[in-house]
Amino acid sequence: MEKSYLLAIESSCDDTSAAVLMHDRVRSNVTASQKIHQQYGGVVPELASRAHQQNIVPVVHQALAQANIDKKQLSAIAFTRGPGLLGSLLVGTSFAKSLALGLDIPLIEVNHMQAHILAHFIEDQKQEKPNFPFLALTISGGHTQIVLVKDYFEMEVLGETLDDAVGEAFDKSAKLLGLPYPGGPLIDQLAQQGNPDAFPFPKPKVEGLNFSFSGLKTSILYFLQKQSDAFVEEHKADICASIQKTIIGILMDKLHLAVKKTGVKEVAIGGGVAANSGIRSALELAKQKHHWKVHIPPFSYCTDNAAMIGIVGYLKQKKAFSPPQIPKPKPGIKSVKPNATLLQA
Predict the structure, then answer these.
(1) Most buried of 23, 24, 161, 280, CB within 10 angstroms?
(2) Which CATH superfamily is domain 5-123+301-320 in?
(3) What is the DSSP track for 254-304?
(4) What is the pTM assigned to this prediction?
């Protein structure tokens, strides 16, 4: 088979990333993170877009160098079309379009959330590819969704957050505790040293498969306001463990309901919060207790990265050059009324 190299570019938020794939194998995956947002306690869109402008050329150059290829060997370029920060997306889009035009090669747009799901199909010895149909729990700083994945490009959103994303709930809870941004990973670290049953926080009552995290953040705020600084500092690990247990409980309750409603017991997670040790442990427990087939991606494919954009680009190319097939009915899927529209291919 002739070698076909694809360059992928991801710039949806505050990470500038470029990757080179040969078919479905990653040859390089380079990411430049932006430290400037730490002093503001969150991502500042204008600063993010400026940093992307500074980072994108060296990041792409490094990705090509690590893959040991010249840009003239590229057969296509895939880029993040959205969702994301408008200014950040514009930098990646403009660069990808210009380079594709200069090289006279195809340009492939990719849905960012779809890429988190299809990252499981990267050819990697560290992960096993899911079988269709499967349920995908996409959890990040900007999104929280349960998706029924029937095929590479046939996905149905069964439930999503009505307000804040789970990653935002982690980060804002951390900010209330005086932890630096991004605080989600720090809550995870401290939680491993604390008692998850020390301080029970209420779970929101949301019908169906949708999520809500704004009420939980408010209850955490009121709890902390009633405590002294010394108390919070002394019990910080216990508070973090209690927060993490509550958030993971919310996610797992909805995931159990989705399995019950659809009859699909194959589950995959994706997004930055998929790196959380608590959610990984909860899924492993469900695998043993309820006989789910669970897919947890390597850490390098959890956070925003260009490799996941590249695999979608490869699959779109493959679909475009494949002969049409008559779709077969997929057994084992119960009818579920969706709460949102289909993810677009």
Answers:
(1) 161
(2) ATPase, nucleotide binding domain (3.30.420.40)
(3) HHHHHHHHH---EEEEESGGGG-HHHHHHHHHHHHHH--EEE---GGGTSS
(4) 0.89
